[in-house]
């Protein structure tokens, strides 16, 4: 069972919205279908599923924000509420000519709830195995995308290489500007 891929569902769902840039990529059934299909989930979706995913997205954002702020108990409380709301159980499978392995089988009636159950369980496993401090929010302003830090030295601060590069270039330019101002100030004195 690859629980990291289940945890990625939580990351992908949360990252469909960025309230700071007023971006929302989960407003229609087609948006939900695109999100779920990226993770291998399929099934009939309705507007109710979209609303359920949006609500879950907001709750998962609370988990990442709390963990990022160092409020581990708040993150665990929300995650436990979600695990209770979206129950799941393990089952052994050997599909597609693979050896026997574990899968998470959701005990919920809708496609969106099945996605939610796996996302919450995967996130819970990653948080407990890696540590809640590994749940992060991108430090490159104005990005607020979330990520799970799987680096060996717990050093990840950005959601992507793009954001890391953008932040490093901005810091470099700020240092150059500061040095130029200092040089101009020294020359004027």
Automatic annotation (TrEMBL):
What are the residue boundaries of the Zinc finger CGNR domain, all occurrences included?
Answer: 134-176
What Pfam families would the database entry show?
ABATE, zf-CGNR
Show the Gene3D superfamilies listed in the entry: Jann2411-like domain
Q: Which InterPro entries match?
A: ABATE (IPR010852), ABATE_dom_sf (IPR023286), Znf_CGNR (IPR021005)
Q: Which SUPFAM superfamilies match?
A: Jann2411-like (SSF160904)
Q: Can you tell me which residues the record assigns to a coiled coil?
A: none
Q: Can you say what this protein is called? A: CGNR zinc finger domain-containing protein
